[in-house]
Amino acid sequence: MPMPAIQWYPGHIAKAERQLQEQVKKVDVVLEVRDARIPFATYHPLLATWIGNKHKLLILNRVDMIPPTVRELWTEWFVSQGEQPFFANAQQGTGVIAISKAAQSVGVAINQKRKERGMLPRPVRAVVIGFPNVGKSALINRLLNKRVVESARRAGVTRALRWVRISDQLELLDAPGIIPGRLNDQDAAVKLAICDDIGEAGYDRQSMAAAFIELCQELGYVEGLNARYGSIPITLSGEEYLHHLANEKYRGDLERTSHLILNDFRKGILGSIPLELPHTLSD
Fold first, then answer.
1. Which in 42, 79, 117, 221 has the greatest CB count within 10 A?
2. Taking a C-beta distance cutoff of 8 angstroms, is the pair 93, 144 a contact?
3. pLDDT at residue 151, rounded to an integer
4. Which burial class, exposed, middle or buried, applies to 276 when counting CB atoms under 10 A from its CB (0-12, 13-18, 19+)?
C-alpha cells in the first residue's frame, strides 16, 4: 500500500522563519537543537546559509532515548565532519551545564574585543533553533533553572520570538520550530512524524506505525516490540504486524493499535530505539 505523502508548513512557521532570519543577524552564537533519535532528519538544510560564519553549538536532545553505543557512533560521525556534538536530556537537565558554559565561552572572546575598542562588556546573545518539539523550550527553561517558556510534548507550542535573560553572561532567543518548506525527503518526514516532531494533522497514523515497525526491523531494534506486545513474526511487513497485533489484542482496531505503538515509542516504553544510525546515511 503506498504511503500517503506527509504535508506541513503552517503559516505561522513561514512567518517565524522570516523573523528568525532577521534576528539571527543580531546574535553571537546559534544553539541548534536536534532530536538524538533522528539527528539527520532534524537538520534544516538552510541553517548553514542563515548563520554564515557565526559560532554554532550542535545539541542532540533526548539522549536518554538512544543507547550509549549509538551516542558514541554519532559522536564519532559528527567529529569526523568537524563538529563536536553536545548531548542533552533537557527535560531532566542532563548536559545543560556543559551547553551553558560553551555558549558563555563565546562571550569571553566577544567581550575581549569590545574591551579593546573601549566598549563595555555585554551578555552573549544566542538563538535556539530547531524543528518543532525537539526540546528547545525545555532547554531554555533548564538553562534558566525555572519555567519561563511554555513547553509541551506537541509540535508548534512556541509561536513568537522572544528574548530570555539567562544570566549576566547569556541572553537567549527562543524561536518557533522551523521546518523546510518543501518535503523533498519523505523518508525524513516519516521519521519526524514517528518522533512527534511535526503535528498530527500532517500524516496518517496507521502508516507511521507500520513504518516505525519496519524501521525497528531494519535497524535491529525489535526487542522492545517483542517485550511489549509478544513475539510476532519478524518476517511480517509493518502493515501485517499492525493488523496481527490489532486482531490479537485490540479487536481489530487499527487506529487504537497505531496510537498505542507510537505513544509507547515516544514515551520510551519500548526502550531506547534510534531511528537513524550514521552508517545509514547516504553521504
1. 42
2. no
3. 43
4. buried
Residue 155, pLDDT above cutoff 50: no
Size of the chain, expressed as the number of residues it contains: 283
What whole-number distance in Å separates Cα of residue 162 and Cα of residue 154? Answer: 20
Distances (CA, A) of 262 to 83, 136, 151, 193: 32, 22, 20, 10
CA 228 to chain centre: 25
Q: What is the DSSP string of 30-60?
A: EEEEEETTSTTTT--TTHHHHHTTSEEEEEE
Q: Distance from first CA to last CA of the chain, Å, rounded?
A: 29
Burial of 170 from C-beta contacts in 10 A (0-12 / 13-18 / 19+):
buried
Reported as a pLDDT band with limits 50, 70 and 90, residue 5 is low
Cell of 16: 517565524
Q: What are phi and psi of 171, to 5 degrees?
A: -120, 135
When comparing pLDDT for 141 and 65, which is higher? 65
Q: How far is CA 257 from CA 116, 207, 252, in A?
A: 64, 12, 8
- Cβ-based neighbour number of residue 92 at 10 Å: 12
The distance of Cα 30 from the centroid of its chain, to the nearest Å, equals 15
15-19 long-range Cβ contacts below 8 angstroms, 24+ apart: 16/159, 16/160, 16/161, 16/175, 16/176, 16/178, 17/178, 17/181, 19/161, 19/175
pLDDT digits (tens, 9 = 90+) for 232-249: 887 899 999 999 999 999
Alpha-carbon span 240 to 213, nearest angstrom: 10
User: Could you give phi then psi for residue 48, rounded to 5 degrees?
Assistant: -60, -40
